[in-house]
């Protein structure tokens, strides 16, 4: 199979869809891998590294898209990219279609087969291709939040861990999934006073057993969140409904409960955000203020630590990329029900129900697509 790895073009996105080590494995399997020149240069993965691994270097993105049977990326295709996709091509990347109607329509129009990292599952019910970036984003959320709390950044002027004789910052983490756990762990490590909300009692019990009284846990309700907001310095939004738009857990009206200069970090922004006042930002301009509250809503947070993120992502995606390349997309999905759940779009049909519902578009069951209907 001819596999293409383009340079990412989203603002301040320095990750790349495959490391040279990943390329080497695919070449050993008998596949041809094209990598756009300079795709990994910003993080020290140079063209010569890819060439040594057996990749063909392609200068022009249009040529790479036209020749590749499968495109492997990191971020969702931008408009100029999904316009280059065509019928019969496979796209394997993060998509986050539920809050993004233009991209959804663009992929449907292209006729391609689009498989989303974020909806691939595993035997434990987890999301193995989202997990590594969620781990990074959860840790970065606290790091970014701590910076935003500095007075020069518009924050309250609060040190996350406090100092002897001065109380630490209070951190609320909304969601006990991978992002939430790593955010809580990072905040605890910095000495903050941390409260985590979730609707799963088993998860709350698990976290209580792991962290003991150092981590406060609360069952997530609107009343419980409202009761804690007046004492919060930093709120991390870490909720996820796979493939669907994130629920709005903090409304604009609830912002008045927060102290002025408090910080909201919305890690769910790729799925539309879990704060009503959120809108996607970039690493170039990461924050904005609403009613005196600082919002950090960078849509590609792990891109800020792009080298770590690239290696972590390739570790997770490579076995699935190999399956798709070795077997072809249809056979690979038929053989692996968990990879099959990644199928979002095929030949102008929407195959992921939560996305179809989010956009009020027709839904084609996955089983029909795999059966060749």
From TrEMBL:
Highest taxon of the lineage: Bacteria
Record keyword Signal present: no
Cross-referenced Gene3D superfamilies: NAD(P)-binding Rossmann-like Domain
PROSITE patterns: ALADH_PNT_2
EC number: 1.4.1.1
Domain Alanine dehydrogenase/pyridine nucleotide transhydrogenase N-terminal residues, every copy: 4-137
InterPro entries for the chain: Ala_DH, Ala_DH/PNT_CS2, AlaDH/PNT_N, AlaDH/PNT_NAD(H)-bd, NAD(P)-bd_dom_sf
Enzyme class: oxidoreductase
A Gene Ontology molecular function term of the record: alanine dehydrogenase activity
Catalytic reactions of this protein: L-alanine + NAD(+) + H2O = pyruvate + NH4(+) + NADH + H(+)
Domain Alanine dehydrogenase/pyridine nucleotide transhydrogenase NAD(H)-binding per the UniProt entry, residue ranges: 149-297
Record keywords, A-Z: NAD, Oxidoreductase
UniProt cross-references to PANTHER family, sorted A to Z: ALANINE DEHYDROGENASE (PTHR42795)
Family statement: Belongs to the AlaDH/PNT family.
Protein name from the UniProt record: Alanine dehydrogenase
Organism of derivation: Zobellella iuensis
């Amino acid at each position: 199979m001819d596999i293409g790895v383009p340079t990412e073009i989203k603002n301040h996105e320095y990750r790349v869809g495959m490391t040279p080590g990943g390329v080497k494995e695919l070449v050993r399997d008998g596949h041809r891998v094209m990598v756009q020149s300079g795709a990994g240069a910003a993080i020290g993965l140079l063209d010569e590294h890819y060439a040594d691994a057996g990749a063909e270097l392609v200068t022009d993105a249009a040529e790479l898209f036209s020749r590749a049977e499968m495109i492997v990326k990191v971020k969702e295709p931008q408009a100029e990219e999904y316009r280059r996709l065509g019928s019969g091509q496979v796209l394997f990347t993060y998509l986050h279609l539920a809050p993004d109607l233009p991209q959804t329509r663009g992929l449907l129009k292209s006729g391609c087969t689009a498989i989303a990292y974020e909806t691939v599952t595993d035997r434990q019910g987890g999301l193995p291709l989202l997990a590594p970036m969620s781990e990074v984003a959860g840790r970065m959320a606290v790091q970014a939040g701590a910076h935003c709390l500095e007075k020069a950044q518009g924050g309250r002027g609060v040190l996350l861990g406090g100092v002897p004789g001065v109380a630490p910052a209070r951190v609320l983490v909304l969601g006990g999934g991978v992002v939430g756990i790593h955010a809580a762990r990072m905040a605890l490590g910095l000495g903050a006073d941390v409260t985590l909300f979730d609707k799963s009692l088993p998860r709350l019990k698990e976290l209580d057993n792991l962290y003991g009284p150092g981590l406060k846990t609360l069952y997530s309700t609107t009343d419980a969140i409202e009761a804690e907001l007046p004492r919060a310095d930093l709120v991390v939004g870490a909720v996820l409904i796979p493939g669907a738009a994130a629920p709005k857990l903090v409304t604009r009206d609830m912002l008045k409960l927060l102290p002025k200069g408090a910080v909201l970090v919305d890690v769910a922004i790729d799925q539309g955000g879990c704060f009503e006042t959120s809108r996607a930002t970039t690493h170039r301009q990461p924050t904005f203020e609403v009613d005196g509250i600082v919002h950090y809503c960078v849509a590609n947070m792990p891109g800020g630590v792009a080298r770590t993120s690239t290696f972590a992502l390739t570790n997770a995606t490579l076995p699935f990329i190999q399956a798709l390349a070795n077997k072809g997309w249809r056979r690979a999905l038929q053989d692996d029900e968990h990879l099959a759940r990644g199928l979002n779009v095929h030949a102008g049909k929407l195959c992921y129900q939560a996305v179809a519902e989010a956009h009020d578009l027709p839904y084609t069951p996955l089983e029909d697509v795999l059966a060749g209907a």
